[in-house]
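Next up, sample data:
>
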Amino acid sequence: MTASNASKLIFAPAGSNTTPQADQYTKGTLSRSQLSSSPFTQFHTWFTHARDSQSVHQPETVCFSTAHLPSGSVSSRYVYLKELDSKGFVVYSNWGSSRKAYDVESNPRAALAFWWAALEKQVRVEGKCERLSDEESQAYYDLRAQGSRIGAWASEQSKVLPEEKGEREVLEKRVKEVEERFAGAEEIPVPGFWGGMRVVPEMIEFWQGRESRLHDRFRYLRDGDGWKIERLSP
């Protein structure tokens, strides 16, 4: 190792390998003949495989990326995909105080990235954002654990919990106040600032790892009422 590399905290990591060469991807291939004409059907096929494989932990985990305008500042976080319908991909969150809410308000576009390491597959999605109605959000909200429904009301997501006021204690006080507010209630209404956000895709890419980084990549681009499929260079 050279002196310049020795000064780096991380340099050329390669998993558990003892050499700097990264792992080779050998678990699958992807050809045009394997693809559905609909990217939603194709995603459902891949997602079902990942879910049923027993080797992918929480395949619904997805990186949700947004960008604020006019600064162009980008932010990412992991959330759960909760719905897929004929329009797009739905995630649920706080859209009142969170960083992603701040971004989407100025720039209603987002990107999703799924990574299923055990299958050496990833899926990328890019598209426009649209809020679900309160009625649609309530249907999912009612399925959440009681504590999660209370937490959605109590947390001013991404706002600072002041150190001088006890930090975590501030949050726990809010939780107790919400619990008292809804004590004995058969149903808890979904907060107006919380709910579903659908990413309506304009592009969906399916990526299958291959040896020597010569991966198989296919991109679906929205084309009128249908989709155009293109193979991309790795």
Summary: The longest strand covers residues 194-208. Strands lie at 61-67, 74-84, 89-94, 109-116, 121-131, 194-208, 216-223, 226-232. The helical segments are 3-6, 39-52, 99-106, 134-141, 146-154, 168-181.
